[in-house]
Amino acid sequence: MQRVKRYVFWGGRLVVGICFIWLTYLVFDLSYILSQVKQLFGNFWLVTTMTCFYLAAFIIRAKAWQLYVGKQISVKVFVDGVMYSLFINHLLPIKVGDIVRTGYLAQSEKVTWKTALQSVVVMRLLDLMVLGLIAIIGVLYLGLSLSYYFLIMLVIGGGLLLGLLLLKEKWRNVLINHARQILSILFAAKGMIIFTLIILSWCLEALVIFAVTTEFSLSLSYLQSLWINSFTIAGQVFHFSPGGIGTYESFMSFALAAYRVPIKEAYTIAVITHGFKFIFSFVVGIYLILSVPISWSTIKHWLKRKED
């Protein structure tokens, strides 16, 4: 079964990697990308606004996490944990930021490792629920034109994920148990607040894409940008490189193409948006290393933990 899981994951990563190489071969134009970067970063107030909204998205996500845990722990611990997760995921080729996020909370000694991990899993599932709802709304109400490129990515991604869940019984059981818990949360007053905060955080993050597209004089609406962001983030399950390089660009390019954005512009928008997020994550990472450092040996210890 472990071998099947590896085949499914690496099969998906291989397909996405080939798509990225193909896209890069077709439309990569360094001079065009640099000219667009210069135009974007020449607008100081736009970049500042993008940064503030992107930062606010993570702070709100951290607040939702704090409300879920329900312990007398400073919100700063949750913000730092979320930011460490972002930084590590952009630093390493494997997506282990959530384990670091778990360990960072657990080291506060006010919650156990198991409780911290469970809270991170639930928050991730709530993220996926929100992203899924946005994706459905996008298809039904935004007049989405399902282009050939988009259908390829949708069928491949959905098929591989479904196959993985069907083949992995343990994963199915865990997913069902957490789904029950999430439903119980959503029907509570605090749960509705948490869910609303998560929706708000993704709405703020989508403003980064919306701001970048305005520099290309495109007619994309904010709601379309929200859908594109959700589809792109959902595709990061096939993360195979630091920060999801290749995966992010492929999924966003195809999502933009679904709204009839020319593929060269779609690719460039994806590269610039992802580049902005890389810069943000490394600036945050430097701040964390200087203010609340974690030794590499501690991180390796967290990665070896077997509880699930």
TrEMBL record:
<comment type="function">
    <text>Catalyzes the transfer of a lysyl group from L-lysyl-tRNA(Lys) to membrane-bound phosphatidylglycerol (PG), which produces lysylphosphatidylglycerol (LPG), a major component of the bacterial membrane with a positive net charge. LPG synthesis contributes to bacterial virulence as it is involved in the resistance mechanism against cationic antimicrobial peptides (CAMP) produces by the host's immune system (defensins, cathelicidins) and by the competing microorganisms.</text>
</comment>
<feature type="transmembrane region" description="Helical">
    <location>
        <begin position="40"/>
        <end position="60"/>
    </location>
</feature>
<dbReference type="Pfam" id="PF03706">
    <property type="entry name" value="LPG_synthase_TM"/>
</dbReference>
<comment type="similarity">
    <text>Belongs to the LPG synthase family.</text>
</comment>
<dbReference type="GO" id="GO:0006629">
    <property type="term" value="P:lipid metabolic process"/>
</dbReference>
<keyword id="KW-0046">Antibiotic resistance</keyword>
<dbReference type="GO" id="GO:0005886">
    <property type="term" value="C:plasma membrane"/>
</dbReference>
<keyword id="KW-0443">Lipid metabolism</keyword>
<feature type="transmembrane region" description="Helical">
    <location>
        <begin position="148"/>
        <end position="167"/>
    </location>
</feature>
<dbReference type="InterPro" id="IPR022791">
    <property type="entry name" value="L-PG_synthase/AglD"/>
</dbReference>
<feature type="transmembrane region" description="Helical">
    <location>
        <begin position="187"/>
        <end position="212"/>
    </location>
</feature>
<feature type="transmembrane region" description="Helical">
    <location>
        <begin position="7"/>
        <end position="28"/>
    </location>
</feature>
<protein>
    <recommendedName>
        <fullName>Phosphatidylglycerol lysyltransferase</fullName>
        <ecNumber>2.3.2.3</ecNumber>
    </recommendedName>
</protein>
<dbReference type="GO" id="GO:0050071">
    <property type="term" value="F:phosphatidylglycerol lysyltransferase activity"/>
</dbReference>
<keyword id="KW-0472">Membrane</keyword>
<keyword id="KW-1003">Cell membrane</keyword>
<keyword id="KW-0808">Transferase</keyword>
<keyword id="KW-1133">Transmembrane helix</keyword>
<feature type="transmembrane region" description="Helical">
    <location>
        <begin position="121"/>
        <end position="142"/>
    </location>
</feature>
<keyword id="KW-0812">Transmembrane</keyword>
<dbReference type="GO" id="GO:0046677">
    <property type="term" value="P:response to antibiotic"/>
</dbReference>
<feature type="transmembrane region" description="Helical">
    <location>
        <begin position="278"/>
        <end position="299"/>
    </location>
</feature>
